[in-house]
Amino acid sequence: MPLKLNVGDVVELKKPHPCGGNRFTILRTGMDFRIRCTTCGAQIWINRPDFEKRIKKIFPEGKSE
Fold first, then answer.
1. What are the domain boundaries of the chain?
2. Residue 52 — left, alpha, or beta (φ > 0 → left; ψ -120 to 50 → alpha)?
3. What pLDDT digit, counting tens, does each position of 48-59 carry?
4. Tens of pLDDT along 3-24?
């Protein structure tokens, strides 16, 4: 069953982005996700199965810690 992820949620991934950040904001959901690195602002498209495997922690919208 797919994880409950919403636009605006912040997720921490297991592997960091090349800029060093590992937190991303979800911009689009569905079979593909568009996420934005909170450190450098780069946007990435990633498919759902790969994205769900990489998630370490989910912060609901508005609660980043």
1. 10-59
2. alpha
3. 999 999 999 999
4. 889 999 999 999 999 999 999 9
